[in-house]
């Protein structure tokens, strides 16, 4: 019996996978800025509570009205919140623990 020579298997070179960093996105709806921030944070399971300490010049609690609906994306949840709050005279302070 005649045996054929062994066939060489083709060499397959795989391209390295591109690293795609995870992004976070949130939809901001028309209405209360405070409620939007609370909803985004609670759905992300990132924080257990939010202290909303925004007061007018007389010390009364205040809120801002978000007009329209949009999607905000960033590489961190802090970045998403920062982009949302950038247009308002408020700041977010993130505490660990």
Automatic annotation (TrEMBL):
Name used for this protein in its record: Uncharacterized protein
């Amino acid at each position: 019996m005649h045996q054929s020579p062994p066939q060489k298997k083709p060499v397959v070179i795989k391209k390295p996978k591109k690293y795609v960093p995870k992004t976070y996105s949130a939809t901001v709806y028309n209405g209360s800025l405070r409620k939007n921030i609370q909803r985004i944070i609670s759905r992300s399971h990132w924080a257990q509570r939010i202290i909303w300490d925004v007061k007018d010049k007389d010390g009364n609690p205040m809120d801002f009205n978000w007009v329209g609906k949009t999607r905000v994306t960033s590489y961190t949840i802090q970045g998403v919140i920062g982009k949302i709050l950038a247009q308002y005279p408020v700041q977010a302070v993130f505490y660990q623990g």
